Queue: 2 jobs
Job 1
Amino acid sequence: MSSQIEERSDAVTRPLRVTPSADNHDSETGLQNMDWGSLSDRANSLMSNYNQTHRDEDIEEAIRILSVWYSGLPSGSENLQAACANSLGIAFHMRLRHSNSIEDLEQAVHYWSIVLELWTAGSPYYVPLVVNLGGVLRRRFEWQGKFEDIEQAIMMYSAATSSCPPDSPYRHNLLNNYAFAVYSRFEQTGNPQDLDFAIQTHQECLSLRPPGHSSRFSSLMNLAVAISVRYHHRGLVDDLTSAVAYHREALELCSAESPSYATILMNVGLMLRYSFERNGDLQNLNAAIEYYGVALTICPDNHPTRSSLLTNYASDLHTRFTQSGNINDLNYSIELHTNSLANQSSAHAHRFSSLLGLAIALMSHFKIYGVPEDLDLAMTHLASSMALCGPSHPAHISVLMPWINCLIMRYKARGDITDLDAAVEHSEAAIHLCPRESIYYLPLLTHVNNALSTRFSRQQDVRDLKRIIDYCDSALRDVPHHHITNQFLAMDRADALLQRYFYEGGIDALEHAISFYRNIMHDLSSGHQVFSRVLIQLASALQARFEQSGNADDLNCAVNYYRTACKACPLGHHDHIAAFSGLGNALLLRYQIFGLLDDLDESLIHLAHVVEARALTTDHPEHPKSLANFAIAIFARFQNQCDSTDLDIAVDFLQAARDHPNQSEGRHILTYLATALSARYTEREDINDLQESIKLFEIALPMFAPNNHQALHLRRNLAGSLHKMYAKRQTIEDLNAAIAHFEAYLTTSPKDHPDLPLALISLASCRHMWAAANQDYDTYRDAFLLLVAASEKLSEVHPWRFHLYYYLATISKDYYEQTKDASFLEQAFQSHRLASSAPGIHTWDQLTAALRWRTDAIIFHHTSALEAYKTSIKLLDRHIMATPTVSGRYKVLLGGILRDTPSLAADATACAISEGDLELAVELSEQGRGLLWSQMSRFRATISDLRDVDDEGRQLADEFEFLSAELGRRQSDSSSDIMTVTETLRRTQHEEEAHQYRQVSSRWDAVVSKIRQKQGFAYFLTPTPYKELRAAAIAGPVVIINASIKRCDAIIITKEGPPRLIPLPDASLVGIAIISDDFRGVLRNTGGVGEEKMREKQLIPVFRRLWDAVLAPVVEVLLTIVPKGSRVWWCPTSKLTSLPIHAAGPYRKGASNMPNIYVSSYTPTLSALIRSRRQNASKVASITPSFVSIGQSKPNSKSGERELEAVGAELELIKSLVPPSMSCSEVSGDEGTVSGATQALKTNSWVHLACHGKQDFVQPFDSSFALRDKPLRLSDIIQAELENPEFAFLSACHTAVGDKNAPDEVIHLAAGMQFSGFRSVIGTMWAVGDDTAHYMVKEFYDAMFSGKIDCTNAARALNKASKAVDKDKVPMDQRVVFIHIGA
């Protein structure tokens, strides 16, 4: 909305001095004795003063004098009446300029109209009077909307122009205001002839105001405004160029103090806006907004241009918001639009425009926040604007278009189909009535297209798309290529083609759409307002073509286009959600095809961002799509990491999307939900999931056109679910239906479709099942032929070869059982071997293939069983290692492998034993247990020897230690017990950390590879061979006790020689589990005060059974190797980890029990013991040990633990026992916090902890010590970088209790202390008595400090203490509750 400057004629803007006639009557105003000439001079003087000072008293007094004068004039004195009425008109007009009062305007019109009746065309004052009266009439029209005012002004100007000679000094003012009035009529009628006449008249006026003329600047500006409007309507670049030039010249001529300066600034801003609309250069829009801002600071509230300025300022802020997404721009736009309306009367000529601008801004606000009131208010304002400009109003269509948009928006928000039908009906009715040459025709057509496209999305009537294409084809034939609307129409056409492709399929439509998008891209600058939309749609089309043809270049280009769009669409931008959704989905697809985990990580980050961006607008119609996209990515992560929590999250999100009241993607969401439910059935075998999956697939299938590529995927997945249903229920109808769908898929798919091999493989599996059910050998051969056909279509490195090998193994095995042809059995095991090493697939899939191989090898007694076990353990390690956090690894381990094969390591060890390879048995036992500790230790390897090799060795050592420390910091974390939806979304924030973890891990792998190339380091961090593992027995034999379902054995390892096997024929895995359960039952059922004797009586039979079944044969052999009293290290497996081997014995008269035979220690693995021996070896001799006691009797109230009354006494006792040669400190009471304890652990080599201990059975790495402020978790201890740890005594409950779900992982507090560097650790296997612990503590430290201070004496000291304490004061279970771990 631009503004022109109206002129006043100087001839009548100064009051005339007149002399009254003699027959003038005196009035009763007190002025009767005054000279009338003096009275006129007095009024003139007051008006002149008012012009200078704007004192209201001056103009009011002048009006009073003139009014009295005028009322006293006798009839018949026309000249005096005209002069006085003219002066009154001038006075009221003066006051109007500052008051903006409608009363002043009406008075000016009234008095100048009287003058016009008296001063006819022959009067010398006629022309200047017409100039001024026409001006106030035009202004009254602007305020009150009376069209007759503007018509009267134009008639007066036309008549005056005809009678005004070319050399008249008033002609330039007359022409200016004449053009202004005609331009105002053009704004109401839209008659292009009026606009051309206004421009022509302004040009004539400008010619009469040469350079130097005082009013030249106003002519320049008025001409610029009119020409810019013509540009806006006709799109001629020359008009825009001329308008800009005229405006800049006007700005140079206009003084900053001029009342017109704000108007010129505003109009210059409008020119810059038009330039932005043409070339998309955001700098032009920014400059326009700066001009508006300056103009507003100098534009007073009553300035006639202020309303237009506010509206233009607000509109351009809204435009910038749509480009940059800055919500402050949108909020300020709404504020300015609201102020503009407040500045207008209800009949203001441009009120419809202000209402329209505010409605559009509120619609944008609704898009961001989804507040229903915004949409309702926008609709109200649009209705008011429509009422002000009916069908005959030239701006009617400009209001109708946002109203159509608002109807569509309300339909999407609330789902009322009547809104959508109304939008289509009104838009098509308007386009049929709108002349093609109208400036509104093409913009209106884009709104028609939007309405039709939206209705197609709802009703899937392809005729709507064809109408869009026809409309666009017809219009594009007539639109010049450079026209601003050309790109919008081309976009609409391309979008319709893409939609038709998604609905009907057909590569021609897709290729046509891509060609259109590329042509549009070629013509756009990066700042163009449709630039981001083109990028997003072109990326979508290329992604669709990739899905059709499999050309990776298309997908990579799509990702790059989405990335560019994301950079161009900050948060708040109207395309922000679409850009980030598109990028997330494209990355997810690329991950699914090519398996790059970084793509999955980034996909989750972007899709989670989209869901969170919609968090405030959950009613938004696009919200279900955001939920579904995020769910699909979470489902992909489940497929990679096999975390069933991810599967549940995916199902929950998809169900929420399906049940959303405004969802419009029903068929897609149903398909994804059905797929996820089918996968969950595979995971848990809940038949309800599978039944629901089939039901949803069958509902969704008819919603797609038969040849639609997504329908093909759906049909294949439906067949897969029916396939599973047959496997579950053995109902032949399910299998027949699955076969029918697979065959339909193969029939309708293009012959070169990239998914064809997978369908062939699946159909082969179904044929195999049908053959097995019907004993039909011919169908077996059909299944083989289908697999051969699939193999011919797959490259040797294609990931789907895994599925090929998987089913080939199954079919070959079954065919062998039918025919007993050994060649088929060998083919089955060769396929197992190939499946477990298939390229390009997840390690989880390889691992499951290896485990199937192992199972079949056992069943068929095949010679490859040991190879299958070795492969399984290697793949298990690799699969667990791919998870970045230690808690995540534990979850993967527990939720996957250990759930199905809890004794993998023990079974592998037993297999090697059966094969007679004891060294391999030891190696497999080591590789398959303590995986989590082993993997973390890789990043803590000490490589001081590498530094001594050469300069490269020192550099590699530094880099290795840096990357190892970095990975170590990234591994440990903690999980929450309760997971809400919000927290679920926050999980994806860790994907960026996972991405960084993998990057650092990749660099770590490269450094390790280089280290292995150095002489003497070929086996660096590889699975340790037996010849190195036996170093664990350098100070005494180590006994591995292996409990497998197949057999139970002990293997004794000594520092020299081969391992020794001791079969345990009286032990079994079931029997050991029973002993373990009985032991725990005794502790649980006899824990009361006064039950000590009963507990001892019940424990002895348990210890005796353990001795007889397991330990007696081992001790018998040990006595031939080392004498009584020697140290022995126990390395138990399975349920044996929870039993006190060190306390077992015959408990018969005259027989020795274990404490009296050997000094027992434990080790989780051989490698852990080796690390304990090597740890801090260079520091032990040179550093005086420092001792710290950490105690906490009153833990944090949230811990729920009772007060430990004996802690203080225990700490005092220890202080008295520590020798003077050791520095001794204490951390307790209020200082006994996590930070205080952690600092003490870091800076002291010997530590005694007296407090509550808690084993967390849900997340073992959250096991903790209870301190004053919060728990000190196992994960915290692992992350602490301890300076010189040697010995730790954990006087707390349950510090050496392993995880019952993963006993071979030995995850407990004592093991964590050992891993953190403590060479020797005392822990507890069950609850410690608060009233008896100090007896054991005293005896232990008496023995420990009786000779040389050495942490490796701890086991002997503990053995002595258990025998030295008063047995009447310390019951049996409290004498053996403590165990020693480490060197």
Job 2
Amino acid sequence: MTDEASIAITMPNVEYDDEVSKAAECLFRSECVSTLLAPTINLKASSETCNLGIDTIISRGESLEPTTSLVPIINDDGNIVEFVEQSRASEEFGSSSVSMSLNRAPYKDSIMRTSVAHKVRGSSSNVPFSPGFGKGIDDILSGAEVPIDDENASKYNEKELEFLDFSTTLLNQAPGLKPVNLSENASGNQKAPEKEEIPSKPPPVIDLDSTNIFDLLDFVSSGAPNLPASKKSTDEQNKDENATKIEEIPIDSAEEKELEECITESLPHVKEDTRNYDLEASTSTNSTKKFAYANEINTLESYPEYEKLLPRMARKYPFTLDPFQQASVLCMERGESLFVAAHTSAGKTVVAEYAVAMCKVHKTRAIYTSPIKALSNQNFTPKLFCLIMTTEILRSMLYNGSEVIRDLEWVVFDEVHYINNEERGHVWEEVLIMLPSHVKIVMLSATVPNCVEFADWVGRIKNRRINVISTYRRPVPLEHFLYTGQDGKTKKDLFRIIDSTGTWLTKGYNEAVEAKEKLHAKQVHAHQNDRNRGGGGGQGRGGAHPPTRGGANGQFRGGANTGGGKNYPGKNDRNIYSNLINHMRECDQLPMVAFVFSRKRCDDNAQILQTMDLTTQVEKSHVRKFFQQCVEQLKGSDKMLPQVLQMRELCLRGFAVHHSGILPILKEVVELLFQKGYVKILFATETFAMGVNMPARCVVFDSIVKHDGTQKRILNAGEYIQMAGRAGRRGLDPTGTVIVLCKDPAVPQAADLQVLMNGAALRLESKFRVTYSMLLNLLRVEQLRIEDMLQRSYAESGSLREAREKRKNLEKLEQELRSMPPIDCATCEPTLAKTSFSTFGLRVYHDALCSFIYRVSDMWPKVSSEQSVSKLLNVGRFLIVSSAQNCFQNDVVLLLKELSSGSSRSLLIMASCDSLSSSDEALKQADAFSRLNATEKSWNEETCHLEGLAKFGINGARVPSSGRKLFRVCELSYSSLVAIVKKSLKSVQAVEVIAESDRRKLPRFRNEPVSDGVVKLINQLDGVAESLSKGEVEVYSMNELASMCSRVELDTPLVEIASLESTLSDPAVYPARHCTRFDQHMMLQREKVRYERRIETLKYELSSDALLLSDEYQNRLKVLEALGYVENEKMVSLRGRIACEIHHQELLITELILNNRFVTRSSAEVAAMLSALTCQYNSGKEIRFPPETIFAELQDNVTEIMMRLDQTASRFSARAAEVGCELRFDLMEVVYQWANGMPFAEIMQLTDAQEGLIVKCIQRLDEVCKDVRNAARIVGDPALLEKMEEVSASIRRDIVFAASLYTSV
């Protein structure tokens, strides 16, 4: 710009047109800012030959950004009044290896270029992006954060807020990069209008129109990253900070206003909804307060606001969305996270699709996660704006700081109820915890009873409100039947037991029982006739079972009375299925999915029906053509594999099989044919029900019993509902049909069926556990603590909910303790200790009494079990007892009987009492005592004992009032014992005393006089108490009891108790006992101690020491330290860095790498060795190879290291391998031959394993090879890297890595 122009701006006396002058000045100021903030480019350096020497790299490194910035403060008039120097957090301008900020520099690898693989997966040299913790565990537990509400929903993690609001710069400017002008808006054909950005917390912005030019230059040269805004009042700032952020679509002002009204007024919170729905999921006032971070939304009607949004939706649908889908769309348009718990086939996929569509509009990214690959294949195809992966991959991306996370707007978690999975459920929790604050969450799940509680947990760890949207009924209701048919005559024996309204039909069940009994009687009779004719144990017509098989009376054995049947198909199964299929075909109830809980039985069931043909010639032609097109992708002999030919023959007849043993490409063929209606009967395992949207008209359960890997059990309601939910095609079927086959002699029990079909689904429960991978990935990041992760696990959700209230209680208790008056007494509170004993104050005396009470209470059960002491505790022995529960305080009682129940022992005693009213009062107090919590019970008992010892002495007894004529009998624990009196009565009729006590409990005998014998005992009790007070009768001291014990381990504690007893009995040691106001001061001291203990308890509960998984964490950390993966001060060593690159069996593979077990082996040998870690096939027998073979050597190499790891882990009560990661050598030879080039058809001759299991083993092996290859870079071993590339190349071929049909057909 010329000097004249600048003079024109600064000299007001030059006459220029006002508008031109104003525009020129604004242009100058804008250009000034852009020019001064632009990076300096050294053209000379860029033209030189590239030299990557270390000195050159250092000398050419980017200049360090300033660690402080000058921020101008601008008044209401727009003038700069002062500059304030502010420190910049290092996270704002650090590299990806040290900074967790979204504003950090992008990752670049060692050769100064960004790797595409590292962009997506990240690198172990990166630290994660800030996971939205915002605060440390102590702050969270302290309750310092403010609960989410409409006014402060955006105050969390303010440093990152500028990256969290997608309505501002993040939608058109990646962090750290220059803004990009997008020519298209939400509708794709209009230019987005310029609008003023309103950040969540307004950073100061300089006024370009009124600011002094020199101030502007100074401001720009200071390197301040943000342009400050004008100074506002505190109330205005708070209002801006607490403003709710809304996703804004670029439209004209009129449309924008209408859309804003539509979105902001769309979904009322539950607390504002006064309608009363009689639904289990409805939120009550108490639950709303308890689960404050979950906003449950009623979805029983459509939303008018949705109609306003309809023209501008990110994705258009050719059908009207259901209310729950409308509510979900409105929530997502508002930028709010949500948990959708809907019935199977209700349409949850629409919600996921809309989240992806919003990312397409916003030019951001979405990640869709699923537990199984089939979900990903079906629901979406890979797009630039949507990545599809398992949760394990997303977890790795989060730990490794993937660059994709910067652009991530939505993460969709499908099948969230999979969090209950024992092996993989913990991954869901890790991912939810590690997600950065700017990422919004969509969780999709089947109906679960505690979805609000789970959403509240997610809301608390992410510090945002989670909307909970549920469906209350299926779109297609289900009808449940029992099928008892066996042959042509009984093929129509189908009995409805639950109708479409969910009502249990007793009549239908009784008819099924009657039909089954008749059929079974007929079978037994036929079987008996066969035996009489010499038929032996053959089955009669229809495959009758022997009468003892499973039990005719319906007792459980091998599936009897549960619809289980035999574990193998035969003539009976063929008859049942053929007749059922014919009947369902006649009723137009096909297609049908039959769930069978065994891969082998799925195959066998399909084969025994080979005479049935359900397809027309036209359908056969289509199937044949499609199958041929799919198989053409295979090479050579793979096209003629037995499983391929068998599946082709089955599909041509309308049958198919779907389970993990089927080749992946064949499973996809089956899924596509089933969707098109060419497969009429599908035999599948329960994995087919996991989220794959392939509904049928009818679902059949071959059995309601499954083996879960540990035992045989009946299905739970959640499993049954998940599979049964496949019945009923929306828009085609009015109802879905669910059939349970009754193949046993008796039908399942009615109670079991009702729980199964109408019971509540399983609750979402935490399966979180501490893994070595998690420990290493967190320990390598200085800014993160493992306690942060543990505290935010779902297992600790209860503690998170209570933390704020506990912190309030803690502060209140501390304040009340400080306000308590001191004990102003020279005797009880001596200020100067002249000797070590004589000046012990009241607090020391109190603590000594408490110590004595707890030691004695703990010792009595042990001492009483000694033979010599046990002889003292006979019937008629006088005892001194104290019990707050039974209103005793150093009272003398008479022992009637010793009671024992298992390992617990107690005393039945008799005590005197003044009147019936006092006896009744004691009973009332005992009842009230039983309702107290454990803490209150312990405190009351301690107080009772302490007051008794202080008042009557260590072994003293209270003297009762004279003239007592009544008694009571009660049970006391051994901890109630104070002392054993050296006196007992002989020939006490304990049975008569107990009987009289029981009789007097009856109202009509209540006022009867006490028998003479019992009156005599009462007088003797009172006499012994008086004698004890006068010293005429003594008790056994602890020294005397110690001399009677034979166990050596009791000597030391008894001697210590005896010493403490002697000290407490000495009146000179504790002068506070002689205070004239002792009772008053002791009461005040007890109150202070109570406050202190409650404060101590709350502090512990609010600390990381109270974590449920604290012990497991410490144990596993010790294992890592012992193995050298973690060094001093919890620093991750080189071994640990290598293990961070491994995502499966990290300890074992790391040890194999560092023990040089790979480089000296051939590619096939390495593949065979690693197959032991990825094999999931179990042949059911121990695999032992001949000693001289290479396989025996490889097996020894792996087991030797694994045994060493197990030995180290066992020292710390831990395991070296995770759950489900056992070593299996069943496919070692198969993988070896495959890596050597043997065709798939030939390797199938080496094993009984099914094709699909072999393919899965080899595919997982390839993932392990990638991990080891990355680890080789960490080690700096090019030979190992080259070796693993060779291994990958040797196994990545042919049918094992055939392309998916979803992306190629």
